[in-house]
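Subgroup meeting minutes
Present: P.N., E.W., G.H.
Scribe: E.W.

1. P.N. recapped why we're keeping a running log of single-chain structure predictions: easier to compare across weeks, and new members can see raw inputs and outputs side by side.
2. G.H. added today's entry (147 aa).
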Amino acid sequence: MEEGTLRSPGHCEVTDPAAPDAQGDTDPFQWDTREGCEVRQILDRVADKWSLLVIALLDRRVLRFTELRREIDGISQRMLTVTLRQLERDGLVSRTVHPVVPPRVEYALTPLGQTLHHTIRSLVTWTEEHQSEIAAARASYDAYNAP
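Output recorded in log:
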């Protein structure tokens, strides 16, 4: 085990700030390579494209499953079901079943999910502000590395 790390596989913080690899913050390569790291698992979940789209759509309003499926181009019924279940399990989305025939199920962001949406919105804003710089960098890279 690396010096300065916890023995618990589910917790990935540096415990000794004086350790050689501690820089006042968690070393991203430490949590990236450790099996069972909760930070990595959470990032994998919330950063996948389907979760991002579901969270963005639910920030606007409460939606039914069929409405979500219609709004998210390319998602299968199974993938939407899996994504919603994972987000619900993580406490980011709530599921409400209304006792009517046929049953009506609605999904909404929880307060925790709303805080995540603020972070996602910041990332989208950054992307929008820098998209021309990124496009120029890509064009330069492609021109330099063309066969």
